[in-house]
Amino acid sequence: MMHNGQLVAVKKVPVNLMTHHDMDREYQIYRKAAHPNIVKLVEKPRIHSDNKWYIIMEYISGETLEKIMFNQKLTHRIKSKIITGLCEGLFHLHNNDIVHQDLKPDNIMVKSDTNEAVIIDLGFAKVLPGWPQLCTKYWKHSICSSRDPDTPLGSARLSLRCVGDG
Questions:
Q1: What is the CATH number of the domain that holds 47?
Q2: What's the whole-model pTM score?
Q3: One domain for residues 69 and 110
Q4: Same domain as 92, residue 104
Q5: 3, 5, 125 from 8: Cα distances, Å
Q6: pLDDT at residue 136 above 60?
Q7: Which residues contact 159 (CB under 8 A, 6 or more apart)?
Q8: Residues 53 and 74 grouped into a single domain
Q9: Of 59, 40, 61, which Cα lies nearest the Cα of 116?
């Protein structure tokens, strides 16, 4: 969809599913999360005549990580670029005390022209001051030790372990 001459993606949410307070909270999280590896809001969400919130975001030309992660044509260089972008986006979120809470391959877009990862859908995200310090032990022992290096993005998951251990 075009919006003010810019190609955008529009997420439509019925007003009965999201209060003004919840939408304002999500808007503030998007503003705080501004980073090249995190999808950007184009404007503050508004309710339109069809009784839905319109959340207008930048359009990411590409596919979700879910769709491409088993593609045998992904070289180690491309995988590394995807994971680097994902880690940079997460690092930014976490440094701003933002927890995504719904991070999964369907919520990571990979740009078709650059193979850069962009984290999308911050609808469940929360601001939790000081949370990274509380989770360091959990990250090291629970998440990182369960990663299998033989999975399609195994080398990338090992990189996540290094981030968690740092």
A1: 3.30.200.20
A2: 0.78
A3: yes
A4: yes
A5: 6, 9, 22
A6: no
A7: 80, 83, 84, 87
A8: no
A9: 61
